[in-house]
Amino acid sequence: MTVTLNLLPPEHTISSTLGKTLKLVRMLNVILLSGFIIFALGLAAFFAFSSIQLQSISSEVDEIKSLIVSQEKTEQAVVLLKDRLAKIGMARGVVSSIKIFSRIEPFLINIGPNSNLSELSIDPQKLDLSVVFRSNSDLSAFLKNISDSEVFKFVTLTTFGYNPASGYLATFHIL
């Protein structure tokens, strides 16, 4: 049997209910302390896991950024290639535009000394021509020459205007 020995004087002794309460409080403190330690360990594990995930996501983002940069370079190369192909097509068109220019050249030479060519746009299939005629006779002669000619399929007078200072402005669309 165990002997309990109380060395405190009787007026300083703890009542039994207070003793039970203190015992309960000690037990609760141990439980709460162990709960806090478990919570702290869980929180540390969460931060470690989050840190590992953050590093993983950061490396994935860096990989995606490098992939985007390489794709940008590839896309730029594709755009430059398309541009070069378009310019090659234009260069091929210039060669065939010489044919239509050689057909209109005799008419341009006979425009007249007082008249001048203000605009000429040549495509392989069509020709747009703007001429400023100083006199009515120059305009009539040019219209007669081009209408009598069988060199072009269609000749359309798209705009016609008169300015007393400069003369007649006529724009033709020729196929």
UniProtKB/TrEMBL annotation:
The chain crosses the membrane at residues 27-49. It comes from Candidatus Woesebacteria bacterium GW2011_GWB1_39_10. Keywords: Membrane, Transmembrane, Transmembrane helix. This is Fimbrial assembly family protein. The keyword Transmembrane applies.
